[in-house]
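I am writing to request your help with a piece of structural work I have in hand. Here, with my thanks, is the record as I have it:
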Amino acid sequence: MCGFCGFYLNNKSNIEQSKKVLFDMNNAISHRGPDAEGHEFDINEKTFLAHKRLSILDLNPRSNQPFINKNNKISLVYNGEIYNYIELKEALKNKYNFTTSGDTEVIIAAYLVWGVGMLDKIKGMFSFCIIDKNKKIYFCARDHFGQKPFHYYYDNKEFIFSSELRSLMKHPSISKKLNINNTLNYLHYDSYVGSQSPIKNCFKLNPSEYLIFDYKNNNLKINKYWNLSYREKHVDKKKFQKDFLDIFQNSVHDHLRSDVPVGIYLSGGVDSTAIACMAKKVLRYENLTAFNLKFGQKSFDEDLMAADTAKKLNIKLVTHRLSTNEQKDKCLSLIDDLDEPLADPGYLANGMISEIAKKSGFKVVLAGDGGDELFGGYEPFLKFKMFNFVKNSSLLKKIINTINTYSKDNFGYMGFTYKLKTFAKGFLHDDEYYNSRWLCAFLPEEIKKLIEWSNIPSFKFKEDSIYNYVSHLINSDNKPKDDYEKLLKQYQKHYLSNLICSHTDKANMNFSIEARAPFLDKDLFEYTNSAKNNLKNKNGVSKLILRSFLSKNNLAEVGKARKKGFTVPMAFWINGSLKEEIMDTMSEREINNFGLIKYGYVKNILDNHFSRKENNYKKIYNLFVLFKWLKKNNVTY
């Protein structure tokens, strides 16, 4: 796990000044790789590369980057891990003479032998840039699920790239101008989704994409190298259980490959417990240390279940109780460290627990990311039939709306009244975007009321345009066979990469931690997607195979517990430790000075939350993160 950056030098650039810019860009991502750094300036080719290393495999300096082949024609900077590097090395040993024992050199060898086709063979989480000076190209790629980021700038003249937007923005060619359209999407999705960025002419590679920048002809092309399959195949229950556990075991085994100790985030839920059980009890990984976070809010905490699991598996457990005094400082520090706005409070929870892992001396941890997307473990999947029934009943919808009118919101984790009000958003319109409304901070009609349109008169807003992104995901590739598959696509192709993978990378790399997710294995996803739904979930119970696996290993109580997401009690904190900071950041003066948002609308949102009339934590946190980031980075529109 590391960070990298670079650019192609245009003819007007000053060499010495460009070197300084590269150093500035690289220093902005020092947290991603504190163990070593490297640079390559090829003045003849006008190619510039820099790298910050977090040493995990082959700790020897021989694996430092940029990694350059023997004839100095191929250069690599890379972030992530290739989990099948040992098998690839075996396949390549007769065609390439290896000088290191890690995975970095395997990428170079794979490219030299297979070219772009290497992407069909590697398994892992990664983003990288290879400069091929024979072909005069930059070859850049991002992993299958979007675990590792790749940001770039291209304006038909210059190509600049980095692991983080904050690094990219150090380059003087990039003006700090807000992309209004992408920001309207952020207000809905809580993230700058897909290839979108808050800054004009800046982009991100999507998961499973690669780009070729031909610097001789100044031409950039992007291609897709892998698509998730949803083609159902007939398989019986017994075979599915055996095959799934075999693939899962192989994935956990490969994710444990490391030359430094490996820990695990143990929430007490099904996903992380299944990984811990597979690692310790099946694969006999003896030196596993688990980490858990306690907030002091009963509806959010899972420390007791985690402690019971750790005891049964004989795993050392480090639990940190977050004090009231820590809440404000840690929240504000983590928000300040965001390289781009991300309004997912799960980022805060991940950041706080990764800091504990860091202080305990760990560089690598296992995490349960992807389990819910793999099995459809979220609430919308479990209430799927109920929603379809309610949306076709005028009487039931009227009853729900009446209850919502006279009920105060609940501030606990997924309280009944909060869930009921969220549920009602789904049938505001008769379309296929009900899940997007369930997840969102602001509905399209709310965005229309929120924005001060008179200050951007040239911008023409259509409410339905907010759904363009998710509509493309639903209907891309093969047409979904039913509404359930449409729902699954949204979580596997949007929620997973734009929120889950994004918050895990940002939070953990902030503390130089590599978080690995064994469920995010392409073979595991392809096989599980091919099975019938009733082999995965039944009668409102999800992850049947994982619950069965836990039960057989004396961990049945975990499978019976109510699902909790790993997040923070943000609704309470807004009314408590964060209230003063939120009021200052979103004051009438601050909002009116920026000019994009209507203060009156924001004041109403705040007042209703402070009085506990409405749980508006998603709206408030979304705006709070955005305004903090805009001010820190001096971004204007």
